Amino acid sequence: MRKIVTQTDSSIRSHFEWYLRHLELVEEKKGVIQGWKMRKEEERQQIIQCGFDADGNVLGSFDGPENSRDASSREQSDRAKQKSREKTERLLEQWKREKKQKEEEQAQRRRELQKKRDALEAKKEQEAMMLDRTAKRRQDGITDDMSLSFSSPTSNEDLVERSRIAIEYAKAKRLRLQQIEERRQKQQRLPPRPETKTSDENAITLPKPAMVFNPTEASKARGLSKEEIRRKERRRERQNAHDAYIPGKKAIPDVKVKSFGHIPIQPRAVPAWRKNI
Questions:
Q1: Residues 73 and 5 reside in one and the same domain
Q2: Is residue 255 included in any domain, yes or no?
Q3: b/e for 41-78, b at 16 or more Cβ within 10 A?
Q4: Is the pLDDT of residue 216 over 70?
Q5: Is there a domain that residue 21 lies in?
């Protein structure tokens, strides 16, 4: 027996014994199944020899009252099945005829709708051609009387149709003119478009002399004297400038508020380590 590194000799031996027993049981099972099949085949042969078929029905070789009753019942069941089959076939044929008739009716309706649609499209094309012809005649200065004089005499229906087309053309023209007028008024109400200033990229832009020589606010403040600064401060106090820039100053009287120019700020707190110095 070959040794396995991870298994002991006893475990290998027990597994080998179990496998041999398993093979014996498998062979025994196959033998039992084969014997059962053979017994069943023998029983079937005996039944056939005795005059019965595989389903347990008596064969036709034995004549008797029971056989005749079974035969009549089988005939009745066969007739019932035949009638049911014929009825199903009749219903199927009727359903097929009805389906075919419905399909033909639907195809006929589709053809009629297509004819109506084609006639309507042809009528619209004819009306459009007549409108174009009328517009061209009006542009060329040809009057309706002259056109009627060269044309063949028409009936009242043609005259009514022509008048209707002329009215529709006039309505469409008036609507088009109204849209053009509304568009023109809307364009007039719009502000003028800003013009793009085309400048040379190579040109050197120089500052304007007036902006160059104008003093800034910081330079103006540096040129003031102390007396002028105090005078401006007193004037701001008289004008309540600080109240205006510091809203709610009266609601916090315990807080000292100072203003340097127009920027209101609160004085910084003194650190604890510097209070006793």
A1: no
A2: no
A3: eeeeeeeeeeeeeeeeeeeeeeeeeeeeeeeeeeeeee
A4: yes
A5: yes
Domain with 134, as residue range(s), is 63-147
pLDDT confidence bin for 247, thresholds 50/70/90: low
- Domain total of the chain: 2
Contacts of 267 (CB under 8 A, 6+ apart): 256, 258
| Same domain, yes or no: 45 and 22 | yes
Q: Is residue 137 part of a domain?
A: yes
Decide: pTM greater than 0.70.
no
Same-domain pairing of 95 and 70? yes
pLDDT value at position 30? 93
Name the residue with tokens 């009514």: 160
Over residues 247-259, the mean pLDDT reads 58
- Please give the mean pLDDT across all residues of the chain: 76
**Is 103 within a domain?**
yes
* Tens-place pLDDT, residues 68-127: 677 777 888 888 888 888 888 888 888 999 999 999 999 999 999 998 888 888 888 888
